[in-house]
Amino acid sequence: MRPDPVSSAAAPTGRPLNGMSVDVEDWFQVGAFERVIDKGDWDRLPARVEQNSDAVLALFAESGVKATFFTLGWVAHRYPALIRRIADAGHEIASHGWDHQRVFTMDAATFRADLLRARTALEDAGGQAVTGYRAPSFSIDTRTPFAHAELAAAGYAYSSSVAPVRHDHYGWREAPRYAFRPLADSALVELPVTVAKIGGKHLATGGGFFRLLPAALTDFAVRQVNGAGHAAMFYFHPWEIDPAQPRVAAAPLRSKIRHYSRLGAMAGKLRGLIGRHDWGRVDAVVAREAAALP
Question: 239 and 25 in contact (C-beta within 8 Å)?
Fold first, then answer.
């Protein structure tokens, strides 16, 4: 397996380098639809993850941005050529678990097996070592005391699995907003996704929140985190730039609003965000953040 070079954590403009990440899953694999779409039906549904991920690659190529693609092992197993294209373009391949099962629904042994299965598929497809992990739906929280220890034992260098917010699907509001070491006896780094702190409240800024809310909120959060001497951590999904994706009629109204609103605006908003800040791979950002940790 080829070594994977980590790009420099210093942005060419002299501005802070922030983490750009993509959670690679198809439209039918999202947490919002998990109660209305059975996993046994996934292979019978029209797949769009490959074409949408290629569109994301083209968007990054326009601006010269390198990013981290947190990818489901299920996707890597079925579309190995996509994973190779991502790696060959200079991006980092990282794990998003096997099939989007939330970590707080697993025990330690099940989580361990999920990590191994996903990593094997990703490394076989991409030809690069996988050292980063993001839990599906940011599902590492107070209910998963085993998770970071299992990641460390498996040799992961970092996780970006914590969302320090309160949300109906996920969240660990009391978690640190910036990079931290969750284990006293390990070098493992946890890099939470960026939230804006306004009036004592934490507001999420990536993914659907970025798509639905004014971009100024995410810009504010990035500047706020950078001003504190840290890197921001942004994420989105390939399906978020696909307004032509199928509609799930049986989904709850709230899920439909969250999932389908402003899909046509997302690519343009991303181009604007990329142009206003400096972005890079998460492994490069973690290397810089780790150097400042005790």
Answer: yes
Evaluate if residue 2 carries a pLDDT over 70: no
111: left (phi over 0), alpha (psi -120 to 50) or beta: alpha
pTM above 0.85, yes or no: yes
Tokens for 78? Answer: 């079925």
Give the whole-angstrom CA distance, residue 13 versus residue 4.
Answer: 24
**What's at 52, amino acid-wise?**
N
281 with 93: CB under 8 angstroms? no
Identify which of 61, 63, 57, 91 has the alpha carbon closest to the alpha carbon of residue 283.
Answer: 91
Q: Name all contacts of 246-254 with Cβ < 8 Å and 24+ positions apart.
A: 246/27, 246/28, 246/45, 246/46, 248/28, 248/33, 248/36, 248/37, 250/36, 251/32, 251/33, 251/36, 252/36
Determine contact, residues 141/162, Cβ cutoff 8 Å: yes
Q: What is the pLDDT of residues 254-274, one digit of tens each?
A: 999 999 999 999 999 999 999
